[in-house]
Amino acid sequence: MLKRILFAVLGLGLWVNVQAQKNDATLKLWYTLPAANWNEALPIGNGRLGAMVFGNPAKEQLQLNEETVWSGGPNQNITAESGTAIPELRKLIFEGKFEEAQAIADVKMFPKKNSGMVYQTVGDLFLQFDGHEKATNYYRDLNIEKALATVTYELNGIKYKREIFSSFVDQVMIIRLTANKPGQISFVASMVSPQKSEQKTGKGKLVLSGITSDHEGEKGQIKFESQVKVLPQGGTMVAKNNTYEVKNANSATVYVSIATNFKKYNDISGDASAKAAGFLAKAVLKNYDQALKEHITFYQKYFYRVKLNLGLSDMVNKPTDERILKFAQSNDAHLAALYFQYGRYLLISSSQPGTQPATLQGIWNDKLLPPWDSKYTININTEMNYWPAEVTNLTELHDPLFKMLQDLSVTGQETAKVMYGAKGWVTHHNTDLFRITGPVDRVFPGLWPMGGNWLSQHLWDHYQFTGDKNFLKNYYPILKSACEFYLDILQEEPSHKWLVVAPSVSPENTYVEGKRVSISAGTTMDNQLLFDLFSKTKRAGELLGLDTDFRKKLSQTIERLAPMQIGKHNQLQEWLTDLDRVNDKHRHVSHLYGVYPSNQISPNRTPELFDAAKTSLIYRGDPATGWSMGWKVNLWARFLDGNHAYKLITDQLRLVGSRLDTVNVKGGGTYPNMLDAHPPFQIDGNFGCTAGIAEMLLQSHDGAVYLLPALPDVWAAGEISGLIARGGFEIAIKWKDKKITQLQIKSKLGGNCRLRLNDSQIDKSKIQFAKAKGQNPNTFYEMPRVKAPLISPEAKLNKVVIPTSTDYDLPTVAGKTYTFNF
Description:
Number of helices: 21
Strand content: 15-25%
Radius of gyration: 27 Å
CATH topology of one domain: Beta-galactosidase, Chain A, domain 5
Shape: globular
CATH class of one domain: Mainly Beta
CATH architecture of one domain: Distorted Sandwich
Strand order of the largest sheet: 1-6-7-8-9-16-13-12-11
């Protein structure tokens, strides 16, 4: 307690404020206290290696992760018994005997096999500095412009500094320890791990070797090794009791290399020790300044593509946790911009070409058994991780998700055949490092054969932003094979003869109040996903000149899919029958997939559905878990209500789990390190809000590039550059008093750029391009042709007032930039 009080008093000195004021315009998370727990530590990563930096002067702690350290080993969780009950379930569902079907499914559909493996921690590196408990003028930060964590403090008139980063170039983590006087660096380096492991020293290295845990019947098979090399400049270093002790060095550089035996989801024949040693041997040959410079250069080629300026206030001179605490009252626009860019930082740091996709916690996890196993939950969360990838100019970082889709399209063939007797491939609501595809976690969330379908939507989305036909050609077989599965398993429901998926669920929600009854047929989200998958695959086939007969079959099937329906409460129905409850506050809003991330519902093309969908969101309410609020930010942006979207951002930027605020918020909020508090931590809330802020400033899903479609009143002035619109247009906008003052469009692919402008945002007399007429010739704006909805006789439609806007056409040439001043 005394140490905490000492830091609290001395850490607020003039020195810290001077440091902050020198960097007002930079993007930093900074604090006047070391991290007291994991939710205050700061994340660094290079896509593969991650660490949480605690910054304690007396005992630095780096909690370590490597992306392939998972429990168990290669396996599939499908069994021959998994699908035996499906015919019986379909019969009961179509007879309306839902509770009976649910009870049978609970017993028969989930044989005793695993629910997926667990993403796990490697352990911790500690650097012990005796006597440094009395440090003063303490300061730590995470500079997200450089992907660099820094700690500074003073002790006995000496200034100490630590710089820590996970090198994108050298594939090791590097810690640089310095002081402003020679001979002052003394510490002991050690490692610990909760895994089955052993430690040794030798050849100048501290080595931790281990194997991951057994889990749900699967024996731990991932062998990992962490190798630490300490290079002091001056002084002495000795090995002692599996530690390295450095005394009186002028400075020191610590390198951390981690590797595993994992090569592919079905191949763990790698040599963890040799791989870790190889990374380390190359890294230590490079001097520190060069390593840091190359790391920053690599990182900034991604990060600097997008810049957002919403203005500065005196709040930038306050520690980040204090800014979060006061956000709702302070109108700290710079914090919103920081939060947006922090999401981009996290994606760059947890998802690189050639790595695994970001998990439920990115690459940062300190447990052997984390919440929800920290795996890939693909009924919203994994998809949400990649919502910012295209629009915020990080398209290459989508690659790990695409590679996982390739794997799943192989492993999912067995599940399609064994469980459903179908061709093609399928996966349910969860997968892991070993690409399991069977249902997990019981019927309530797990009996949902649409996870692969939703992931597949990202393939067409990538094409719309990039126009990369070679990519589309390479991944077309995955889309086609997914379609083949659904063509085989669709069932004709008795009332309207629509083709539906049965059995299924609307992810994690129920329709019998007080009971966990979820099993159903033809849920609205399923129908929307089918419509998108079939429509996009058909369009891809047309562009590639492939499969004429198959495309005809898709067209015929699309006509028989269930339309979206408007129920008695004027809501968009979540289920095939009108079962929605106005008091249902469930965190999932699955039936609103058609609004976002899809584009099936539009104020211009489907006004009745637009009104009903908005009514559904109003009924569902604002309070939610972190990721759910991230989704709702995007939804309110699509509903063109910037003030409501901003209100959700304000709700999300509530400080939880902090020494500054002891209020226990149930659902949503932000930890002091700006990570999403589900609670507990899930990274999708960060990614969802980053995508949502982009969606407030630019939309391109509805046949036009819509500028500032959901600008909140509090962001009356600002500028954004580098956002990407479908069709390959890079957009920069400046605005003042909510009116656009400058617009810049870089056309990467050429073609017509249809611009949509709110009439209040611009002086129409200064528009120099043609007013849009007819269909947009740019094929990247492919919009769904949705059938007219079925409307319940009890429904009373309320027309939503939307901003008046005008579309204008700008013909462009690939590679040219067009600038307009207003």
